[in-house]
């Protein structure tokens, strides 16, 4: 594995996100589940989650915002990559429906890499840009309320719905670039987080926690090495929003600080493939990413899968 092939650049031209209106707080959950706001917040960092909508509806709304901010129309998109672990149907994929909603006339493909899916999508989008495409729409969207067991306090407290999307394009100036990445999968851990056909999410929470910390450490280290960078070079890390304690445990080994980190978990819960574009959208609103910023996306989840990308940021997408 080497660093990304240089040449075409990689620019975020527009970023958008969407959360459904209905909010379920920890106190709401505690009315029907043996849990409390204090337990959930202390053990996870989650304060509430959004529910409702289908994956295609949520994805469409996020993509519309991303395209609007990029100033592009349907004819400008060469490919849609949609990361989701809660598709509208088992078959067909959800991406064709979203492409239809948006009026796209291009290829449309689902990516099922659980919570790492959107970051996998960025790496595959870079490959498509190198193949000659000009502009890719990379979305992450989830309607996890449809596969969450609200009678199980081990999983029912964690998940939420939402969507985020980015229009990425060539940058011939070379100002913005994918500097390094790492993708991985460890199928021996399928059984620690899964949903059977027609079933709900089952999880061994403690083992997922342990494996997530290991995967984060390995993936971030690999990506930094390939980019020729160190932890101190990263201006902002946007990790998958699963549990604040997972991030804190991984940071202890890696040396990142929480000041370098963007978190949105308290208001969204774990939105799987949507979590990183959702936190990216907020970080941009807050002005935390500037011209020349070095930004790391770090996904991990069921599979196990993991994915890290490091970008030099250029351009104003707000
Ligand atoms: O995208 C990846 C998706 N998955 C994850 O990120 C999950 C990773 N794992 C976790 O986040 C944590 O393991 C959980 C939040 C799921 C659980 O936290 P924990 O600190 O590992 O708790 P635990 O399972 O060890 O349970 C500790 C205690 C137990 O009671 P006893 O046996 O000590 O009396 C549980 O029964 O807490 C109890 N408990 C709860 N109490 C109140 C478990 N869930 C709850 C709850 N409310 N919701």
The largest sheet, given as strand count, sense and whether it forms a barrel, is: 5 strands, mixed
Helix-and-strand structural type: alpha/beta
Percent of residues in beta strands? 15-25%
The number of helical elements comes to 9
Overall mean confidence score, pLDDT: 97
Distance between the termini: 35 Å
Rough outline:
globular
Which H/E pattern describes the elements? EEHHEHEHEHEEEEEHEHHHEE
Report the uncertain regions. Answer: none
Molecules bound to protein: oxa(dethia)-CoA
Question: What Rg do the Cα atoms give?
Answer: 18 Å
Fraction of helical residues:
25-40%
List the helices and strands and how they pair.
Elements: E1 11-18, E2 22-25, H1 26-30, H2 37-44, E3 48-51, H3 55-70, E4 79-83, H4 95-102, E5 107-111, H5 117-130, E6 135-142, E7 162-169, E8 177-185, E9 193-194, E10 202-203, H6 205-227, E11 236-239, H7 244-254, H8 265-268, H9 275-285, E12 294-301, E13 305-312
Parallel strand pairs: 4-5, 4-6, 11-12
Antiparallel strand pairs: 1-7, 2-3, 6-7, 8-13, 9-10, 12-13
Helix pairs in contact: 3-4, 6-7
This protein binds oxa(dethia)-CoA.
The site of oxa(dethia)-CoA has 18 residues, from helix 2 and helix 6.
Please summarize what this structure is.
Helix content is 31%, strand content 24%. By secondary structure, it is an alpha/beta fold.
């Amino acid at each position: 594995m080497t660093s990304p092939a240089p040449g075409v650049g990689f620019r975020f031209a527009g970023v958008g996100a969407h959360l459904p209106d209905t909010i379920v707080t920890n106190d709401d959950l505690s009315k029907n589940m043996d849990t409390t706001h204090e337990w959930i917040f202390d053990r996870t960092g989650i304060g509430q989650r959004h529910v409702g909508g289908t994956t295609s509806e949520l994805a469409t709304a996020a993509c519309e915002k991303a395209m609007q901010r990029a100033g592009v129309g349907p004819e400008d998109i060469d490919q849609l990559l949609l990361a989701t672990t809660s598709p509208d149907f088992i078959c067909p994929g959800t991406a064709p429906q979203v492409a239809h909603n948006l009026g796209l006339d291009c290829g449309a493909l689902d990516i099922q890499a659980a919570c790492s899916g959107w970051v996998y999508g960025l790496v595959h989008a870079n490959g498509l840009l190198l193949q000659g495409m000009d502009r890719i729409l990379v979305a992450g969207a989830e309607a996890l309320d449809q596969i969450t067991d609200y009678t199980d306090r081990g999983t029912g407290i964690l998940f939420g719905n939402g969507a985020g999307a980015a229009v990425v394009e060539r940058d011939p100036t070379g100002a913005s670039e994918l500097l390094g990445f790492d993708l991985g999968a460890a199928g021996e851990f399928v059984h620690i987080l899964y949903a059977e056909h027609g079933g709900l999410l089952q999880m061994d929470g403690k083992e997922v926690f342990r494996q997530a910390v290991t995967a984060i450490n390995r993936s971030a280290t690999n990506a930094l090495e390939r980019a020729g960078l160190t932890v101190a070079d990263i201006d902002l890390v946007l990790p998958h929003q699963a549990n604040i304690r997972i991030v804190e445990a991984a940071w202890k080994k890696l040396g990142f600080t929480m000041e370098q980190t963007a978190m949105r978990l308290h208001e969204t819960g774990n939105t799987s493939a949507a979590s990183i574009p959702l936190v990216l959208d907020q970080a941009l609103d807050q002005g935390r990413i500037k011209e020349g910023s070095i930004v790391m996306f770090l996904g991990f989840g069921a599979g196990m899968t993991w994915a890290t990308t490091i970008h030099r940021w250029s351009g104003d997408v707000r």
